[in-house]
Every structure is written in structure tokens, then in C-alpha cells.
Amino acid sequence: MRRYAVRIGSALALLSLAAFAPASAAGGDRAVFTFEGKRIAFAHLIAQSGGRAVSIDDPGLRALFDAIGASVTWQTGERYVLVTTAEPVVISFAMGDRRFDVGPVIQNAAFAPFLLDGHAYVPFDELMRALNLAPKSEGAQRVLQPELTSIDLESGTGGSKLIARGGMPLDARIVSDAGGKIVVAFEGLGSTLPPSRALTGGPVQRMEIRTEGTATRPRTLVTLYLIPGTTHSAAGTDDQRDFTLGFNGAPAAQPVAAAEPTTPPAESATPAASPEPQPQPQATVSGPVQVTAVQTQAQNGSFTVRIAVNGNAAYDWHRLRPPDNRFWIDIHRARLAMPPYDQPGNDLVTGVRAHQQNGDTVRIALSLADFDTLDVTPDANGITISVKNAIADDVTASRSGSGNIGDAAIAYASSAPSGDRWKFSPRPSAGSYTAANPRLIVIDPGHGGADAGSIHGGMIEKVINLDISERLRDILAARGWQVVMTRTTDSDVGTPGDSDAHMLQARDDIANSQGARLFISIHANAFMNSGPHGATVYYYKPSDLAFAQAVDRRVASEVGIKDDGTVKDKLYVVHHANMPAALVETAFISNPDDRALLQSPQWRQKMAQAIADGISDYAGPAPPPGPAGGQ
User: Fold this and answer.
1) Distance separating alpha carbons of residues 6 and 569, to the nearest angstrom
2) 3-state DSSP call for residue 619?
3) Which stretch, 310-324, 359-373, 480-494, has highest mean pLDDT?
4) CA 153/CA 31 separation, integer angstroms
């Protein structure tokens, strides 16, 4: 199950987070910084052991976000803080966890984010560095200095291209070009890149980087020493943010074909051997494909973006929650075989942009006017994005998806984000529940059939859910319980193609119609990047709490995974089950360490055993067969 807003668990968790009390306030001029000549005052910047923390609600921080085109997503009670940059890159922090993500890269902060007076505080210096801003001092003045973050030389059969990127759109120009040496000046940027770097096998022999000027007015000079006979293009840009320079016939305004990587990305590696079936077949990708065209068509009440791709490729997409409403799709192992695209749209889609995000990813980004209904459809020749003038449900609408383009075109179903989801209708209030069949436990393997759940690293959530559920079934049956599963194969539960609400209700109907004693749903968690990890047990009704706590205690003590505790959340299958119910997110399939656990049959057996032991702690031994104990 994908969760883009995972709530903090029990009251104990809140108290433990509050224990990160601020050491002292960073008051006076220490809370005032200059950014690009403007004064930014941080009213909620406090000292911590090893650094400083800033409230994400700080007016100064919000002003900085406005200036650089970033946005923040967090609501009271949620565990994760998401900061999305203008590129966009997602920076994610988790309450109580020092690890944080900058895009796909996991880093460690000096201290963990925490709650104080109902506000989320995150590490200030680490956040600034993730935004490619360096806190500096110039006398008594504090400065947030944009940084030159990377300079890469990409080579291929059509020539080579230099690409420079920074924390802000680059203001760069060639200031010297003579004697086999080019000097490029980046105004307003500092740098912590190595001062000298030797390059082999390309048109540039050596690169030297030097920063001059002041903290408030920095200038970084990059000197390129060329191989004799090397020619270069005029300076250009791929996405209006970077600086590019082509060599030996390669244009600067669009990338050249990159050499094929000698090894595939680790994320697509084959999982360890295990009894579950392998993922659905993927299209064979022999090398980088080309994105050849982006076309748009506006009609009354709709807007369509058609992306032409000339081969087999994988893609994934994400959209941000209101009020941000941004959407982007990444096509992997792809090159942009056209100039960067940046065009206005209409009243539904205000802008469409396409650029080379990195050496092997093309990104197409849409600025949406509202949280409208959106469909992503791949086919043999590309992908179509359709936006309709119909406001999507912020609670149930998917926030991400993935699939293949080309010979094996397929769009993998994605789940709605967490939070107050699946609330299609209020559950009728009920008094004390009495099980008609007190020996019956219903196990619900999440997803199935057309709904794959989350997919990461070659693993499919619906397969993992079924495997753990089957192990749990066998343990409970051996202890004398009658067990029914909502699905025993890779199949839809309910009528294929029916609404999400009806298909989820079909799972509850199996338990409700038979008067089951308990209902337990098995899932694997996921996030838009790889940082979050651990197991969580969800409940909603008052009658669910003791059951969820019993299961969580066993998971915490027996399984060997970080325990995020019990969380109250209005998940449909838990909410609409008449009997005590719980939903177990066994691990994060999106986290490499958790995914390694999920790949292990022995670990999945331990998880099933822990859930079964929690059921026994809560319900006691299975009643004997017969009229008093059920069937």
C-alpha cells in the first residue's frame, strides 16, 4: 500500500518525540539570513545538539520556499515531511528518524526531526544543503549562498556534452576561450566541488574550479583544459536551469546519445530466490530509447499530452497533493531527441515542460490548475496523459504509478495515499459485536489481480501479501482456528472493474457475512523514495485497538524490524469490518533494507508467526468445534 502521508502512531510515540526538547533558541541576528540580497528572518530556529532545527511553519522558511519555487507537504499528526523543489526533487524527513532522503539518496542528519508545540521541526543545515544552499558568514551577516552542485561530462558516439547544475537557475557565460582553455563564470554561486579534477577518454583533459568574491556576491570560475583539436558549441541549456556545452559536433541545446551502462540500475535487480512467482513480464530494453516528440491538445473540458517514445522503456509518475497540484512522469533509460519543451497550456494545465533530468531519465512535468482527474496510458509508441475537468477525490486519488512503454506496454495499478482514505460512506454505528462463528478468522491479502499494489526492485506487493497470508493461515489452522482468505490466488476480490469502494467492501463482506471473530489485512508499505522503513499496525474502531496492540507487541519483539507502533487511520477494510480488525504494513517495499527482509522466506515466516502470536495473545486459544465454538 502506498502511503504519502503516514500518521504518527500512539500517544507514547508523540511523547517520545516531544522529548527532543530544544536546547536553546537561536535568537538575535543568528536567525536572520541574506538570500540573493533579500533579508529572511527565521522566527523558529532553535539550537540542537549537533546543529539547528527549524519549524516547517516558520514564515522565513516559507518565504525562502517561495523564492526558490519549493513547497512543503505536512499536516498535523503526519509522520513525514516532504519538501519538493522546483526541479522537482523530493526531500523527505520522518519524525524521530535521523535518516532522510534527497531524491533517491539516503543521508543522515545530526539529529532526528521532532514535534514541538504541535509543529514539525527538521534539521536546518541539512535541509539547506539538500536545497543546494550553503549557510555562510560574512562578518556579522549570515548568508544562504546558492551552490554549484555538479559538473558532468557525458560522452557518446555523437560527441560529448558538459552539463552543470546548481541550487538555482544558472547565470553562466564563457568569459575566456583561447589556447585550448575555456573559462566559464557562474555568477551568484559558490562551490564545494573539488578544486581540480582529471578527466580521461573525452575532449576535456582537466577541470579546475575556483570560487571568488564574497559570501553575498560569490562567483565560481570553471576552467576546462581541452584536448588539442577539440571544437565546442555555443553555450546552451536543457531545462532553463542548467548550463550545457557541446564538444566535437554535439549541440548544447539537446543531449547526445549516452553510452549504454555496463550494468543495469540496482533497483531493477532480480530479487533473491523465493517461492513467490516472478513479476509480470517487462519489455526488453537494450539501450537508451529516444523521446522524439511532446504534443498537446486542448479541448472543452480536457487536456491531452502525447509523448512519443521510439522503444521499450519503464516509467513512473507522481503527483503532489493540493494546493501544489504538480505532476511529473520520468521515462527511464531514455534520451530527449528534441529541444527542451516548455509551453503554456490552458485553464486545466497551465504549463508543460520536458527536459533531460539526468543522464538516462527524461522528465515531463505538468502544472495543474486544480486537483483534476488524471489518467496515464502507455502503448507501443509512447504514453498519453489525459487531464479532465473533474475534481479528483484528494482522499482516494492515486499519487503515483508506474509501467512499461513499448512491446509490453502496461500500467501498474497504484494505491491511494494514506491519511483519511477510502471514506466513501459512514459505517453504521454498532454496539457490542458478537461473532456468529467465534472460531473463524478472515485473512485479507491486500491487492491482487489487476491491482498490483506497490512495485519496487522487481518485487510486487500483491505477491508478498499473499505469501505472508498463506503462512499465517497455516499457523492459525494448526492452532485449531477456522481460516478463510479473501483471495487464495492472484485475483481481484469482487467484480473486476468495479469501483475501489465496492471491491474493498467485498473483502469485508466475506468476514461480515460469516460472523468472523477477527479480520486481519496484510500489506507492504511504500513511499515515493527509499528512506522510510519499518512495520506499522493500523486500527480504526475502538474495538480494534486492543487487537492491533497485541499484534504490534509481537511484531516489535519477534521480527527484527523497526516498529512504528499502532496508528489510528480510517482505512476502509478496517473501518467497515463489523468485528475487531487490523491492517499490518509488514515492511516498506520501497526501502532497500526492508525489501531485503521481504525477499527472505525465513523473515516472512517470522512475520507470519508474530502476527499469529499476537492473535493468540488477544483471542486466546481457538474454541473447540461444535455449536458453542462454531463450525
Assistant:
1) 9
2) helix
3) 480-494
4) 39
How far apart CA 145 and CA 35 sit, in angstroms, is 7
Query: Which amino acid, 111?
Result: F
158 in Cβ contact with 257 (< 8 Å):
yes
Residues 6+ apart with CB under 8 A from 562: 533, 534, 535
Q: Which three cell numbers stand for residue 352?
A: 508543460
In the numeric block, the cell 501498474 is attached to: 412
DSSP state of 337: -
Each residue of 32-65: pLDDT tens digit? Answer: 998 988 899 999 999 998 899 999 999 999 999 9
End-to-end CA distance of the chain: 33
Q: Copy the grid coordinates of residue 509.
A: 463482506
User: E strands of 85-180, at which residues?
Assistant: 90-94, 97-102, 105-108, 114-116, 119-123, 133-138, 141-156, 159-166, 172-178
Confidence tier at 323 by pLDDT (50, 70, 90):
low
Beta strand 90-94 with 97-102 is antiparallel
User: Rounded CA gap, 446 and 519, in Å?
Assistant: 12
561 vs 147, 507, 552, CA distance in Å?
38, 28, 11
Task: Name residues whose C-beta falls within 8 Å of residue 40's C-beta, 6 or more positions apart in sequence.
Answer: 32, 33, 34, 60, 63, 64, 144
Please count the residues of the chain: 631
The three-state secondary structure class of 612 is helix
Q: Are 105 and 533 in contact (CB under 8 A)?
A: no
DSSP, res 131 = T
Q: What is the pLDDT of residues 196-239, one digit of tens each?
A: 988 887 888 889 999 998 888 889 999 999 888 888 888 877 66
For residue 28, the 8-state DSSP code is G
Buried b (16+ CB within 10 A) or exposed e, 489-508: ebebbbeeeeebbebbbbbb
Cβ–Cβ under 8 Å, residues 427 and 576: yes
Q: Which helix (H) or strand (E) holds 186?
A: strand 181-187
Strand partners, 121: 55, 114
- What is residue 599's three-state secondary structure? coil
Please report the sign of the dihedral spanned by the C-alpha atoms of residue 118, residue 122, residue 124, residue 128: negative
Q: What is the pTM of this model?
A: 0.56
User: What's the one-letter identity of residue 2?
Assistant: R
Burial of 91-120, coded b for 16+ CB within 10 Å and e otherwise, reads bbbbbbbbbbbbbeebeebebbbbbbeeeb
Cα–Cα distance, 255 to 336 (Å, whole number): 7
Backbone phi and psi for residue 598, each to the nearest 5 degrees, phi listed first: -60, -30
> Which class for 282: exposed (0-12), middle (13-18), buried (19 or more C-beta within 10 A)?
middle
* Contact yes or no for 327/374 (Cβ under 8 A): yes
Residue-wise pLDDT tens digits, 440-453: 999 999 999 888 88
Say which residue the cell 457490542 belongs to.
432
Helix and strand totals (H; E) in the chain: 9, 42
- What crossing angle do the helices spanning 601-619 and 545-558 adopt, rounded to 10°? 140
Contact by Cβ (8 Å): 111, 123? yes
- Find out whether 44 and 119 touch, Cβ atoms under 8 Å: yes
Contact call for residues 570 and 77 (beta carbons, < 8 A) = no
Compute the radius of gyration of the chain from its Cα atoms.
27
